[in-house]
Amino acid sequence: MFILASPCVLNENLRADGITTDEDREVFLRCRKRCGEFGIELVPLPCPETLYLGTPRPPGSFSERLDTPEFSALLDRLEQEVRDIISVKGEPLCILGVNSSPTCGVTTTYFTNEKSAGPGVFLKRFSGFPVVDARVFARYRIYLASPLFSEGERRYNTYLAEVLRKNFFSVYLPQEFDDTAEARGEDRERMIYDKNISELKKADIVVGVIDGSDVDSGTSWEMGYAFACGKRVIALRTDFRRLSGNERVNLMLESGAEVVSSVEELRSALSFQTLP
Fold this sequence. Notes:
With 276 residues, this protein is α/β, with parallel strands linked by helices. 39% of the residues lie in helices and 15% in strands.
């Protein structure tokens, strides 16, 4: 199990001078942590810009310094090297790129001095493989918000958490941290509340289960808190009942979230994309 990664995720010194921020470093660190947590091998891609221009080097676009026959020939050779790796190791889980890079951008690149949509010229050669930008890959901590008061609810929550963990997400599920009838009976409500708030703040994504004739009040609060914090919120509504022609269950919750109708749709919403 491995990922082919833009080499600057492992070594920021391969990047152009002055472009790496503290936020970038945190992103790269979290990418490495995610792989370490799930036992994923990080296999670095070759760095075409470093091999062609060396280090140190100033920032620049593809059209400024890389649009040459020599660089194209280098990309041909490096592409074959990567395909040789794949032929030996098998297909990677994904290719991890870094947006804005002229060579390894995923959805944006500096083809000219103006940033434009589309992959970098190196990653573009690997169409058909799942690809993901480092900033997206680094957001892997999920808070699973859901009712947990019956045996059926707790079993379903455990199932959802396992599905997410199998897709390499770190999941916080409140019922796994002593949020039970017995625990609440010991006057530990404040401790449970503080723990849940702490985990909500650390989460990158909140997945809320909004089944039922009305949404669980605690789940609604957690989803609203996450939305106010600017986090990605995904609402899972498998219940086929509808409140009205335009609402499945609650206008405010649905307007502040991506709504999916099945576990498979949830998995798809969190999956890596494939270059066309």
